[in-house]
Specification:
GO terms for molecular function: protein serine/threonine kinase activity. InterPro entries: Kinase-like_dom_sf. This protein has 226 residues and is an alpha+beta fold. A five-stranded antiparallel beta sheet has the order 3-4-5-7-6, covered by helices on one side. A hairpin with a 3-residue loop joins strand 3 and strand 4. 25% of the residues are buried.
Length: 226
């Protein structure tokens, strides 16, 4: 596989990603012409280069060096699966994957873009592939699944080496089949989605009653949609 992306190293050296110990989003120091930040997390930030638009460079903070190595090892095991970005390689501080066009499922809700059932099926197939490689497909949520030409593409595999099932994707699938069809083309305000997210994070997942939670969400939608 071509390593043309290594030509970007001299440019990426001008960018510093700084992490914190309190799990806050990273900050970025430095500047380089033609480099654009397209995503920020608690361990890393993702950049594209005008000169190499087909690549995405995920640069990790110094505190997250082990997570960089772990994510690179996960992508190695997922090579060839069409439901994930292509993994090209890694540098000292970063990994290189394909830049993926598309709209996140979160943005679909904000924009009123219907999510076809094929996306759900694609993510389910992706999760099965992950398990077949001895990994754990967790931390899959609205912001790291893309709608891409009517199909699903999964981003961010950093937690696949962890144990436990966070149930986030299972609960989204339940919501999709239970009541999503009633508002699939509605533009849902960000404050509504933030409210639902905050309610969800406060729930006792071990004793979660999905029907009660759904009723609470439906009441919120009814108040918003008056």
């Amino acid at each position: 596989m071509s390593e043309e992306w290594r030509k970007a190293e001299s440019v990426l050296e001008r960018i510093e990603v700084v992490g914190t110990l309190d799990n806050a989003p990273v900050t970025i120091n430095g500047y380089a012409e033609g480099v654009h930040c397209i995503g920020i997390g608690t361990d890393a930030a993702v950049f594209t280069l005008d000169s190499m638009p087909e690549y995405a460079f995920k640069i990790y903070s110094e505190l997250a060096a082990e997570k960089k190595n772990a994510e690179a090892s996960v992508y190695e095991k997922l090579r060839g699966c069409p439901f994930f970005p292509v993994f090209y390689g890694e540098g000292e501080r970063y990994i290189v994957i394909s830049y993926e066009q598309g709209v996140t499922l979160m943005d679909c809700l904000l924009q009123g873009t219907p999510v076809p059932e094929q996306v759900i099926q694609d993510v389910e197939e992706a999760r099965e592939f992950v398990r077949s490689k001895g990994l754990n497909p967790r931390d899959i949520h609205l912001k790291n699944v893309l709608l891409q030409n009517g199909r699903g593409k999964v981003l961010d595999v950093s937690e696949y080496i962890k144990e436990g099932d966070d149930k986030r994707w299972e609960h989204l699938v339940w919501a999709y089949y239970s009541f999503y069809s009633g508002f699939s083309e509605a533009r849902i305000p960000s404050w509504v989605l933030d409210t639902i997210k905050n309610w969800y994070y406060r729930l006792d997942k071990a004793n979660l009653n999905l029907e009660d939670f759904a009723e609470r969400v439906n009441q919120l939608f009814s108040r918003w949609n008056k």
